[in-house]
Design goal:
It contains six helices and ten strands. By secondary structure, it is of the alpha+beta class. β1 and β2 (about 125-135) form a beta hairpin. The longest helix is centred in the N-terminal third of the chain and has 22 residues, at about 1-25. It starts with a helix and ends in a 9-residue tail after the last strand.
C-alpha cells in the first residue's frame, strides 16, 4: 500500500515538472547576419542583409602596405629611436636640461638682487630700495660685499634715507628664531652704499656653518623696509692637503 502511494506521488511530481518545462519559452539564439550577395544567391532580398562599410573611411579606402613597406617603416622607427638614445646618452643619467628652473644651479654663486618700491616723498614720487650681495657663498676668510641703492622710480636719481642699517643674523634652532650676529656699517660709494663682512670671522658664525642671512633696514619718513639676502659660508677649509 505504501509503495503504491509513493509511486503515485512520484508521478504527480513528474507531471508538474513537465507542465512547468512545457510552459517555459525556449531561449532564442541571435539571428546570424546574412552576408550573401544578390549576385551569388540570385535573391534580390539578400543584399538587404549584407553588411555595409562606411564611405570615405581611410581605414577601408587605403590599401594595406606591402611587406617591404612595412619592413621599411619598422626600420625607420628603430633608427629614429636609436638616434634619440644616442643624443640623450651623451649626458650622464642624472643630468637635466638647462632651462630657467636650473639657473640657480648653473649660476650658483652669482648675485641675487632683492628690491622693490617701498616709499614716496612729499610729492608722491615713488622710491625703491635694491640690495645685492656680490656672491652667495664665502669660503674661510673670504668677504661678502653688499651694495645698496635707494633711488626714485621715475628717474633713478639717488635718495638719501633717514635710517639705514645692516646686520648679519643666524638662526637659533634651540629657540626657533633669528639672532643678531653682527652689526655691519654702510659706506657711501658714488650714490650707492656698500657693506663688507667676513662670515667666518664673525664669532657667532665661526664655530661652524649655520643658517645665516644679511638684513638691510631702511626708512624714509613713515615707510620702513627690510630687505633680506640669504648666504652660505664655510668656517674652515673643507679639504686640507699636506
Amino acid at each position: 500500500m505504501m509503495a503504491k502511494v509513493l509511486t503515485i506521488s512520484a508521478l504527480v511530481v513528474i507531471g508538474v515538472f513537465l507542465i512547468i518545462v512545457s510552459r517555459t519559452p525556449a531561449p532564442t539564439s541571435k539571428p546570424v547576419a546574412q552576408v550573401a550577395s544578390a549576385s551569388s544567391t540570385g535573391d534580390p532580398m539578400a543584399s538587404s542583409f549584407a553588411p555595409t562599410l562606411p564611405d570615405g573611411d581611410p581605414a577601408f579606402d587605403e590599401p594595406l602596405p606591402s611587406v617591404a613597406e612595412a619592413r621599411a617603416a619598422a626600420i625607420d622607427k628603430v633608427q629614429r629611436s636609436l638616434e634619440l638614445y644616442r643624443e640623450t646618452r651623451v649626458y650622464p643619467p642624472w643630468s637635466r636640461p638647462a632651462d630657467g628652473s636650473t639657473e640657480h644651479l648653473i649660476a650658483w654663486n652669482e648675485p641675487w638682487p632683492a628690491g622693490q618700491p617701498f616709499a614716496a616723498d612729499k610729492d608722491k614720487r615713488e622710491i625703491r630700495a635694491d640690495v645685492s650681495l656680490d656672491r652667495l657663498f664665502a669660503g674661510p676668510g673670504e668677504p661678502l660685499v653688499a651694495t645698496l641703492g635707494i633711488t626714485y622710480v621715475d628717474t633713478g636719481a639717488p635718495v638719501v634715507p633717514e635710517v639705514m642699517q645692516a646686520r648679519v643674523e643666524w638662526y637659533d634652532d634651540d629657540d626657533g628664531g633669528w639672532r643678531v650676529a653682527a652689526e655691519i656699517p654702510w659706506t657711501s660709494a658714488g650714490g650707492k652704499y656698500t657693506a663688507r663682512f667676513v662670515p667666518s670671522k664673525i664669532p657667532a658664525l665661526a664655530d661652524g656653518p649655520v643658517e645665516a642671512r644679511f638684513v638691510t633696514h631702511v626708512r624714509i619718513g613713515e615707510f620702513p623696509k627690510d630687505l633680506v639676502q640669504q648666504f652660505q659660508y664655510t668656517a674652515e677649509p673643507a679639504l686640507v692637503v699636506r
